[in-house]
Task: structure prediction
Amino acid sequence: MYLLLRKLSRLRRDIGLRSAAPGSLAIRHVDAGSCNGCEHELGATANPYYDMSRFGLSIAASPRHADVLLVTGPVTTRMRTALVRAYESMPEPRLVAALGNCAMGCSLLGLATEEAGGVRDVLPVDLEIPGCPPTPETIAIALTSLIESRRR
Amino acid sequence: MKLLALYAVPGEGVRTVYEIDGGVEVRTALGDRVSSIVEEHPEAVWPEREAHDLYGVEFEGHDPMRPLIDHAEGRTAWQVPVRGHGSHEVAVGPIHAGVIESGHFRFHVVGERILHLDLRLFYKHRGLERAAEGTPVECGIVYAHRACAACAVSNSIAYARAGERVLGIEETREMARSRNLLLELERLYNHLHDLSAICAGVGFAAGAMAFAALKERAQRLNDELFGHRFLFGTVAVGQSVLVRVGSATREVDAITTDEATVWKEMLFNASVQDRLAGVGVLNHAAAVRLGAVGPTARASGVAIDARSDVEPALPEKASGDVAARAEVRHLELQATGLRLRELLGTDLEESRAEAGGDGDAVGIGRVESPRGETVCCLEANDGAVTRFHLRTASYRNWPALAEAAAGNILPEFPLINKSFELCYACVDR
Result:
């Protein structure tokens, strides 16, 4: 256990992340029909290489505790209602971010009857993070910039 | 006689794909009203429900026919009725509390104890199989590839192999080497992810972070070798590309050595081990009955692995619990390390498939994905896809997860779920 913790602390030191932006952002993630790639990369932002909690980013369990709704995937017709309800449950001011190409409505593959389109077709979108999937670094940079823009 | 897949072909009937004495046999039951095979093959329950929901096929003897994909029907239609003193329901999802895919679980519980679990997935159904119809066989691979990121390689290779059978071309040795390499790289980062998730499931943060860091290294290695962290776009029907291996073996060695160290930390941590043993047991009989595949089946003592040249990795004690499923991951990670070292010995040359006679009417492609055997069935007319069906490993293992959850307490479910680590995306399609 001791060895393991020492290894982890060395890892953190080696990576040398930038100093944290002051402020915070509570994120509620909703998978509206993604291939799980964006989920993997969003999860990776918590690993010791990126450690997003140091920048004030955290995942909130409920939309009622969230500042930003981070949506992945094309919005399937079956997830549309759940997505809209999650958005309606959020306190204002609230932000919506579309994570990944599918959420941005690009190159959707499924049947038109099963997909409602990109997130923009369902909710007002404040931030788009492109990529298939976006790398953890891209996600971390985009979300920290959101903290900075909120401070201005 | 092992059932590999069952799917409806509109206007024709229902196809069943079996493995008989090592060979693959495709049978067709004509018409839209056919006999159910769930008595002999309980693993056919889900595919029959799917064929009923999407293509309106009636299965005689499958009663009650509960909806699987059709969400229009009410709760009582798809749930198993549970009655009794003190029994109540706990509904979870489709949106979960963490960064997890969407799906709905309905637990029937007494106190904290789970009596029964009803799964309602397919919230992410994108209709990928039907959307692929009409595209040229070579191009349709994108529908398999984009179905699920974590299984992108496995699904693509299953599709590519099925496509090559249809087109009547054969995989060369160099192509097989490239595909084996891709499959093992996918297994490497997936198994590391699963072990991290299991540690997180018992609140062992140090282990979760150590495995997550190793997963990151494995994904960076993917990026270095193939230009993508999830190995997207690396598989094509009938060809494989040139790959410079560089010093990749050194990084593979480093990752597997570090994995062994963290595994030992986990093994000698009594408070972690106490949480893993005896939880979420899928016994041998249930695993066989439900046709479970992959690490899940092997942890329950079922010695199957779709890789013909690999000895199935069985844990020391095939207890079918979370501990056994974790151990299978560790054993396979070490074996994958050795295989990767072999595969990465020399650079990979570009290669194209060779002509191999007439194409099959139904092309079947099989691979061992990180979660178990995945089967792709492909039919084409004039080089264009007429029916594409992807039966992934997760599709087989979801009913097994519901079985393993029964009898445990509700707070153990996230841990049990993580020890199976099934995809929603490649089930929902």
Q: What stands out?
A: DSSP finds four helices and seven strands in chain A. The mean pLDDT of chain A is 87. The first strand of chain A starts at residue 25 and ends at 31.
